[in-house]
């Protein structure tokens, strides 16, 4: 069964300079992109903040990006701004979708592009192409949400804040979104400094609550010190992601909402600290 991610869109990039153009802007190394090896990457602000995430897929003479649908127009404008005299053409593919399949061997369509999610093998397969090519589809994203929460893996359009989130606080290095070996990219200076010099005190952690929470909820240490906040909610608003100061987090990973009304259990992702 293919699960349609209606919060993602498809942007097609053509032109002789498309790869060199992207290489100077996005966080992944486009020289490693092949039709058999898609990438997961970020577009950052010039101050190194997260702007949007996407898969980078090569097929024929085109490169396809899959940004959140709410970021598509802004991303197009930013890319056009940096295009200058580069031989690059940008077009939104409103006739294409992004879908995922959690099973290892889904029914593979004849057209479109199917690939293993480059972030983690556990995330399954990804399809980018015309919806009519898929035989078994659903718009119910709850199984995918539950799977991501169990793994502790965020989705940019749902769990990160554009122009505010810091990539390393959100595990983007662990999710293969950043190449540390390539040349310059937009926002590189702060990102590289954070990795090599700075200390990342806050991390995005999944959580489980016995009662529904809200996006406005703050999280507190048993001593009463504020150490985090809820950033996204799923599963009846009892599960989601929170940005937490892990240096002050209690060892049992149990924190509280204001006035200790609700006990919230935090969890590191499968690749994070135990």
Mean pLDDT: 94
Query: What is the end-to-end distance?
Result: 32 Å
The helix fraction, in percent, is 10-25%
CATH topology of the largest domain: Gyrase A, domain 2
How many strands, what sense, and barrel or not for the largest sheet? 6 strands, antiparallel
Indicate the CATH class of the largest domain. Alpha Beta
Number of helices: 5
Element order: H for helix, E for strand: EEHEEEHEEEEEHHHEEEEEE
The number of strands is: 16
Low-confidence stretches: none
Q: Specify Rg, calculated over alpha carbons.
A: 19 Å
Q: Outline, from the CA principal axes?
A: globular
CATH A-level architecture of the largest domain: 2-Layer Sandwich
Q: Tally the structural domains.
A: 2
Strand order of the largest sheet: 12-13-14-11-16-15
Instruction: Assign the structural class, choosing from mainly alpha, mainly beta, alpha/beta, alpha+beta, or little secondary structure.
Output: alpha+beta
- Strand fraction equals 25-35%
């Amino acid at each position: 069964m293919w699960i349609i991610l209606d919060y993602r869109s498809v942007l097609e990039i053509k032109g002789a300079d498309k790869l060199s153009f992207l290489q100077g802007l996005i966080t992944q190394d486009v020289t490693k992109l092949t039709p058999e090896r898609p990438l997961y990457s970020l577009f950052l602000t010039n101050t190194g903040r997260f702007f949007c995430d996407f898969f980078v897929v090569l097929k024929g003479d085109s490169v396809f990006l899959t940004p959140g649908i709410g970021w598509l127009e802004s991303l197009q404008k930013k890319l056009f701004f940096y295009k200058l005299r580069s031989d690059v053409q940008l077009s939104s593919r409103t006739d294409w979708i992004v879908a995922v399949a959690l099973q290892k061997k889904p029914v593979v369509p004849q057209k479109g592009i199917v690939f293993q999610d480059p972030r983690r093998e556990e995330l399954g397969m990804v399809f980018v192409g015309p919806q009519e090519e898929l035989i078994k589809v659903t718009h119910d994203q709850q199984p995918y949400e539950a799977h991501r929460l169990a793994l502790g893996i965020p989705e940019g359009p749902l769990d990160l804040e554009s122009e505010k989130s810091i990539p390393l606080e959100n595990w983007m290095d662990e999710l293969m979104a950043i190449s540390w070996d390539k040349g310059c990219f937009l926002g590189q200076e702060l990102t590289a400094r954070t990795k090599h010099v700075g200390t990342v005190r806050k991390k995005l952690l999944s959580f489980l609550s016995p009662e529904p929470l809200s996006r406005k909820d703050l999280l507190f240490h048993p001593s009463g010190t504020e150490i985090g906040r809820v950033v996204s909610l799923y599963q009846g608003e009892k599960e989601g992601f929170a940005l937490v100061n892990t240096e002050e987090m209690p060892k049992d990973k149990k924190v509280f909402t204001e006035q200790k009304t609700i006990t919230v259990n935090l969890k590191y992702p499968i690749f994070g600290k135990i």
